[in-house]
Amino acid sequence: MSKKKSEKPAAPGKIGQTPAEDVKEERKDNKEKVDNAVEALRKENEELKASVAKEKDDYLRLMADFENFRRHSAEAKLELVGTANADIIKGILPVLDDCERALKMLSEADDKVALEGTGLIYNKLMAYLKTKGLEVMKAKDEKFDTDFHEAVAQIPVPEEERKGLVFDVVQTGYTLSGKVIRYAKVVVGI
Question: 134-190 has which CATH code?
Answer without folding.
Answer: 2.30.22.10
